[in-house]
Design a protein that fits this description.
The protein has 256 residues and is an alpha+beta fold. It has 5 helices and 11 strands.
Length: 256
């Protein structure tokens, strides 16, 4: 109804649980922020409200920490046979080296983008344990085509066809009739311009700097909302609960 990729039913309990936590956390933060913007000291300055807002921020951080880490399984490979299915389109028969790695996957689909048509996204159909077949998918030209596996914290991709990009630079990945390739983290396919010769410690240090700036920004916003909520004077505080009756236009000729 609301997502371009249909959700499998087994994801709903986790999605509902984490969604309720995130919604309650957002509500706590929203009450605190509204108290500051509306200059209501009983909200922005109350210790219980501030503690609830802080707990909400921490809850959102925990949810993000649970969902963010992803990676590719070690040693997972696939032998792929491509069969022509019309001009610029092929059907892939995929045999996975480890059938258990894709069993009960959240999503196992073929993806193609950056072509002249809309995004291609279709599920793979299981033929036998560890053997799957794709729907006809575009290859060649400017299309970037891959097989994508999502199972819990596994988010991996196998490139099928990628054009050369001299600006990065990055060589082409041809859609040969038969090939065997390893699954890699999907960011390696989606972000081919990302450099791989950067020391690991530098990547970690950069991430910590960004995290520190983000925490500092959240703390500054909380401090500012508290100060504004406690401030006296200035523009009058709006009475958000008061309603005024709409005026009715005077009748034509009234009082004549």
């Amino acid at each position: 109804v609301w997502m371009p990729l249909p959700w499998p039913a087994h994801l709903l309990p986790e999605a509902l649980a984490l969604g309720v936590v995130a919604a309650l956390a957002g509500s706590a933060v929203g009450v605190f922020a509204a108290g500051g913007l509306l200059r209501r000291p009983e909200l922005a300055g109350a210790g219980a409200v501030r503690r609830s807002a802080l707990a909400g921020v921490l809850a959102v951080a925990v949810v993000a920490a649970l969902l963010a880490p992803t990676g590719a399984p070690d040693g997972l490979r696939a032998a792929v046979a491509l069969t022509p299915a019309g001009p610029g389109r092929v059907v892939a028969t995929v045999r996975f080296s480890e059938p258990g790695a894709v069993r009960d996957a959240d999503w196992l689909r073929s993806f193609a983008w950056q072509g002249r048509a809309r995004l291609h996204s279709e599920p793979l159909r299981e033929l036998a344990p560890g053997v799957y077949r794709s729907a006809p998918m575009p290859v060649g030209g400017s299309w970037k085509t891959m097989l994508r596996l999502h199972r819990g914290g596994t988010l991996a991709a196998l490139p099928v066809s990628l054009p050369a990009d001299t600006a990065i630079p990055s060589p082409a990945v041809p859609a040969s009739a038969r090939f065997e390739r390893a699954f890699v983290p999907d960011s390696r396919v989606l972000q081919r311009e990302r450099r791989t010769d950067v020391p690991t410690w530098l990547w970690g240090a950069a991430g910590l700097v960004v995290l520190g700036l983000f925490v500092a920004l959240i703390a500054l916003m909380g401090w500012a909302l508290t100060r504004v909520g406690r401030a006296e004077g200035g523009p009058p505080r709006p009475e958000v609960l008061r309603r005024t009756a709409p005026r009715r236009p005077a009748a034509v000729g009234a009082g004549a």
